[in-house]
Design brief:
five-stranded parallel beta sheet; alpha/beta; 9 helices
């Protein structure tokens, strides 16, 4: 089925705007203050979430913060006064929850961007920014037509599910694109950068100064 690209663009943009409008500004302000006071910033995440976390680290480095990405060869030990920033869609990514707990054990603070503060990493974190999921027809369609899960699998990752969807239902899913958590988080990075700049007294000129020049 061929979809109208302009229509998809407009719908996706509307959904990102709706998600951003539902984020609690107080959560953003609190995390910005935590980042601002930190001596060093560490970022971590897997998959798309990890890519968003990496961009957040870049945004922080471009306003003068010292930033390391967990897992890189040049990443030093974390200490009290540092902060670990984590992006996890569910907040329950097992490997990242271990890293978050390690950071806490070493005296660092932890900031989490996810869809739930009532999650494994959310319970560990000092700062939570919750990106709410919006209810759309896609949720109802997928819930009603989701095949029974094979009990030997803990999640659907790595499995192929076949939904008995009509062409009209598939069109609704395409236009809804409910899974815009990471797209909203990407925009959220820019907002956090602005709020941290305010906290540390930096200006936009700093972004040009700290921008990567080895290109």
């Amino acid at each position: 089925m061929n979809m109208d690209t302009k229509q998809i663009l407009i719908q996706a943009g509307n959904h990102v705007a709706e998600v951003l409008s539902k984020i609690d500004p107080a959560q953003i302000d609190a995390m910005a203050k935590g980042i601002a006071k930190a001596k060093r910033v560490f970022v971590s995440g897997w998959g798309r979430a990890g890519n968003v976390a990496g961009i957040l680290g870049m945004d922080m480095s471009q306003i003068g913060k010292v930033v390391f990405r967990v897992g890189d060869n040049n990443t030093p030990s974390i200490h009290e006064g540092d902060i670990l920033l984590v992006m996890s869609g569910s907040g329950n990514t097992k490997t990242i929850s271990i890293i978050a707990q390690e950071a806490k054990d070493y005296g660092a603070e932890v900031g989490l961007i996810s869809t739930s503060a009532q999650s494994i990493i959310g319970e560990i974190a000092d700062y939570n920014i919750v990106i709410p999921r919006i209810e759309t027809p896609m949720n109802k369609i997928m819930a009603a037509k989701r095949p029974a899960r094979d009990p030997k699998f803990k999640s659907t990752a790595g499995t192929r599910e076949t939904y008995d969807l009509t062409p009209e239902e598939r069109e609704a899913i395409t236009l809804d694109q409910v899974e815009l958590t990471y797209q909203a988080a990407f925009v959220l990075n820019e907002i956090l950068q602005h709020k941290v700049m305010e906290e540390i007294g930096e200006t936009y000129e700093a972004i040009h100064y700290y921008h990567n020049s080895l290109e």
